Amino acid sequence: MNISVSTTATLFTLEDNNSSKSYEASCPPEAQHVSLTVLLCLVYLIGLLLNGYSLWVFACKMAKWRTGTVLQFNLAVSDAIASPATPLMAAYFAKGSKWEFGRFACQLKIALLSAHFYGSIIFLTLISIHRYVMVVHIKQASPMKRKSFVKKLCFGVWCFLLVKAIVYGVVLPVTAENGHMQCLSIHQKDLTDAYFVINFMLFILGFILPFTISVVCYSRLANSLSRLKVHTTQGQAIKMKSMKMIGVCLLIFGLCFLPLNVVRTAGVVVKKYYPDHCQLLLRMETAYYASYILGGINCCLDPLIYFFGSHNFTRVLRKSLSRKIDQQPERNTKSESETVSFSAKRSAVYSISTSVEI
Predict the structure, then answer these.
(1) For 310, which DSSP code?
(2) Can you say whether residue 102 is alpha, beta or left, with left for phi > 0 and alpha for psi between -120 and 50 degrees?
(3) What is the pLDDT of residue 176?
(4) Model confidence at 222: pLDDT above 60
(5) Fewest Cβ atoms closer than 10 Å to its Cβ: which of 45, 115, 155, 317?
(6) CA atoms of 298 and 57, how far apart (whole Å)
(7) 294, 251 Cβ separation under 8 angstroms
(8) What is the model's pLDDT at position 123?
(9) CA-based angle 241:247:248, to the nearest 5?
(10) Angle between helices 258-273 and 278-296 (to 10 degrees)
(11) 133-165 pLDDT, tens per residue?
(12) pLDDT in tens, 177-205
């Protein structure tokens, strides 16, 4: 009788072990299509070139910075720092979704991507608040109008992003899954709960809240601009550029950041509550990487904000693209811009154009 019970217990134990092994190996990672790698490299290469040029303009061609210029520069930095993570992601796809670069490279990848996506969201939100204050409350005092305060605010944002990256590097380590190393992957079974909690914190505090603030600020700004009566061609052009900038900012949130957050949220829910639906999980993983590439398009769209929102940036861009401008016309251009600046103080349109300028 004891032998029978022992044998039965052994059989149940073996069955449990086999079922456990079957569960662990039920959803192994699969190689992604080569098109994802190509698009990933293309998007972030274009973003690197555009933001690299923007940073050069800020650092070398714009002697006088305003409060908005500080925010704009930090937005360009947050866009540019995503580029070092691109080769790691491309190699990860090329190796069949297997991480072979060690723990430190994984932590570096997490830090760069976190600072890129959520740094961009934070600075875009701060730009929306800044423009709202400068236009809708143009005659009222505000800390957002002081360059010293804005610099300290940006420094605080970078400190927050650094601390967040360190925490993620500790909480989301590299793990071995089915004999292969994984980094920041939906296949890390032991980190399912951590991904679930972190995702909803990021979704609510890192996307919904900033997006709501931006929509409110830009709605008020658009309403203020729409009520402005303009009778000159130049005034109409300034007003139209401001409206286009509002459209670009909202497009970035809707096209780049909304799919990324929604797809990632759906992915962690599927992983937590339907872990044995392998085909669904693999499709969610592919959808997430596609939305990741869409998120990278913000690197290419953000320079449009600089173009529509900054007269100085537009002027420098036009000068750099024109090879027929000699030194005398440059002095004339400067004189003309000073004249426009003087006239702006006596006109509501020009007052808005100079105060809103980033």
Answers:
(1) -
(2) left
(3) 87
(4) yes
(5) 155
(6) 19
(7) no
(8) 94
(9) 90
(10) 160
(11) 888 887 888 888 899 999 999 999 999 999 998
(12) 877 888 888 888 889 999 999 999 999 99
d(CA 82, CA 216): 28
DSSP assignments along 247-303, one per residue? HHHHHIIIIIIHHHHHHHHHHHHHHHH-TT-HHHHHHHHHHHHHHHHHHHTHHHHHH
Residue 175 pairs in a beta bridge with 182
> What's 35-356's CATH class?
mainly alpha
Share of the chain above pLDDT 70, in %: 78
| pLDDT above 50: residue 3 | no
Q: Which two tokens stand for residue 315?
A: 């002027």
Question: Which amino acid is it at 318?
Answer: R
- Cβ neighbours around 276 below 10 Å, total: 10
Place of tokens 């590299």: 174
Average pLDDT, the chain: 79
Structure tokens at 136: 């809708």
The band of 14, judged by pLDDT with boundaries at 50, 70 and 90, is very low
Cα separation, 228 vs 30, whole angstroms:
56
